[in-house]
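Side project, low priority. Logging it here so it doesn't get lost.
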Amino acid sequence: MKLKTFSLLFVALAAFSFKGDKKAYQLFDAKGKESNYEKMLNEAKQADIILFGELHDNPVNHWLQMELTKDLYDIKKKDLVLGAEMFEADDQVAINEYLQGKISEKTLKDEVKLWPNFKTDYKPLLDFAKNNQLNFVAANIPRRYANLVYNKGIEKLDSLDAEAKNWIAPLPMKYDANLKCYKDIFESAGGHGGENLPKSQAIKDATMAHFILKNYSKGKLFIHYNGSYHSNNHQGIEWYLKQANPNLKVFTIAATEQAGLDTLAKDLIDVANYIIVTPEGFTKTH
């Protein structure tokens, strides 16, 4: 009887062990090989600029952003600079006033164009900068100007007054329609809107690159948070950074969701230096 009981217990434990724990994420390197956080951190800390590509509503992505930022701060201290797509350049003064404790969170919400998931996903990063007296760069073009490009064409930016042009990349903007990131946008829209749609994306990338470079100096480490599509395939923001300074060490992180975490989808090989894979159907932040 004891032998039978032991055998049943062994079978139950073996079945449980075989099933294993459910992973929340898996890291892969550029070649699609399974990797880990320590390896990613060791490579990231050697960069000049890190482009942390996220899925905007993925909680694991946001948790890893916070963890990486904290660990990089332990290494770089005051030489760490933060920046993000999620804040527009014309809101920089208000962001600075919040970082300096001159305005409250309520005033920040009243004055700045915040994303719906600001409180859960981006406020912790902003507060980390505030608590550690770090710069946080509002890097994106004001949305109204990206919309102007989409609706009226890139040439319409020339008609903006001088102050408004302080919040966008210098004109004329370089643009390569053959880059995959812009070709994909053009093709997915079936050519609707002509080149205005991909150019409205390009002016965002160019502007983010512009403000990253404006706030970066040798010896610093700049970590920038953006949608993964803004830096996938080492294009988008990175392309504009390299146009200005080909010698920059740019380290990219991409994010995706898959049904399984055992292998990386073939079309994601070389999409970034490291790829975060989370399960499909993961809980969203908004």
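Brief comment: The chain has one domain: 28-279.
Revisit when time allows.
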